[in-house]
Design goal:
alpha+beta, 8 strands, three-stranded antiparallel β-sheet
Length: about 140
């Protein structure tokens, strides 16, 4: 197979010039790199890297597969901030299982709310798996 021309977003072997199709030949390994310094707007860049094996010569090829800016990753809030924001909007007694935060189990939500109340970051109390907002 003769080496094809490389276009944007294509991966080519530095040894033989073969174009590697990531769908036909998925990466052997992937990992993430976080930029050590934010840009002038304070955004951090997350780079998804991949190590591919060339189907022609067997050489290992490392390349950046995708770059994600900090404002694209999510709302930029930590799970703690999202929990505080969600719980502070509650005005009536609510079952803990009804407080849903992505990536946090119901047991963890209950424990976290209890700790936040103890630390004074939230007002209210937890009793019998219910959150009672305080003023």
């Amino acid at each position: 197979m003769s080496p094809a021309r490389k276009t944007k977003k294509q991966i080519s072997c530095k040894k033989c010039g073969c174009i590697i199709n990531p769908i036909q030949h998925p990466p052997d390994k992937t990992w993430q790199l976080i930029s050590p310094m934010p840009d002038k707007e304070g955004r951090v860049t997350l780079t998804i890297m991949g190590a591919f094996r060339c189907p022609e010569c067997g050489a290992s090829v490392r390349t950046a597969m995708k770059k994600i800016r900090g404002d694209e990753i999510g709302s930029g809030q930590s799970k703690k901030e999202m929990l505080i924001q969600a719980v502070s909007l509650i005005k009536e007694p609510t079952n803990i299982e009804n407080i849903e935060i992505e990536g946090i189990s119901t047991a963890s939500v209950e424990k976290a709310i209890g700790l936040l109340i103890e630390q004074g970051q939230l007002k209210g109390k937890i009793q019998n798996a219910k959150y009672y907002p305080g003023t």
